[in-house]
Amino acid sequence: MNQNNLIPFPGEFTKLVKLTFDAYKKNFGAFLSLSIIQAVPNLIISLLIFFTIRTEITVLFINIENAEEDANLIWTLISNFLSKNSSFILIALLPLFLVSGISSLICSGGILLGSAQFCSNEKVSATICLNYVFSRIHKLIAANLLMILLLIIPIILILFIFGIPIFLFLAIRLWFVNSSIMLENKNVLDSINYSWELTQQRWWITFGTVFGIFCLSYFSQQIFFSIINSIFSVTSVNSILLISLTSLFFIPLTTISTAIYFIGLRESKQN
């Protein structure tokens, strides 16, 4: 059956979820191999933080919560934390975060293209996906750096609550930048404009869809982790390994659904 006839339009959430799981099930090996690219750096960072500055981070968040939106106090707490751990952050964490960010782009770009292959009745090939991603990686990096610059102020304002609506509005309007680069071969600025246009008059339904997919993926992962944890009673270190292992299987879900929704949204705009 032609998958193009099954592409869900905006609002067809159940159809989107069903097609997402169908794509994942039929191409499990290919999507899992792409997921490993993102999961491994995340595991290394998690273990490194656990064995070094976990306590300091916990104390920082507790103190920020107790600061009760006192901007000066929050800034002082963050500055003191960064100053105290500057060497570790610059020498160890920063390079790993850069590697993790790039690997995440490679992973998501590959899964986006693989999802489009599925929707075109093609067999998903991790090799083809990676080859195409590497030819577009410079665009993905540039676009995501630009998005970080656009979102940095709303992200900071999240600490003061009123930044949340601003952040959510911009995040949804820019949600399909990577999809535009991978599936439409747009350049950096055109991909931002295209994502902005696609979500014009579709913001609320896109927000609801993205939120629903995130909740479905998150709670499925948490339930799976809780079941495994209750059976084996894992230790703290093993729990990090287990979280990384379970995330390996759940990473593709959000990206597959994003690609399928992008295709449906694009077709609905054309119609």
Poorly predicted regions are none
Count of helix runs: 11
Task: Give the tally of β-strands.
Answer: 0
Structural class: mainly alpha
Largest sheet: none
End-to-end gap: 22 Å
Order of helices and strands: HHHHHHHHHHH
Structural domain count:
1
Q: Which percent band covers the strand fraction? A: under 5%
Roughly how many Å is the radius of gyration? 20 Å
Q: Can you give a write-up of this model?
A:
There is one protein chain. This protein has 271 residues and is mainly alpha-helical. The protein has one domain. The protein is built from 11 helices and no strands. It has helices at residues 13-26, 28-50, 54-66, 71-84, 86-119, 126-157, 163-173, 177-184, 188-198, 203-232, 236-270. Helix 1 crosses helix 11 (236-270) and helix 6 (126-157) packs antiparallel against helix 8. The radius of gyration is 20 Å and the shape is globular. It starts with 12 loop residues before the first helix and ends with a helix. The model has no long low-confidence stretch (mean pLDDT 87).
Structure keywords:
mainly alpha, 11 helices, 0% strand
How is the secondary structure organized here?
Blueprint: H1 13-26, H2 28-50, H3 54-66, H4 71-84, H5 86-119, H6 126-157, H7 163-173, H8 177-184, H9 188-198, H10 203-232, H11 236-270
Short description:
The chain is mainly α and 271 residues long. The protein has eleven helices and no strands.
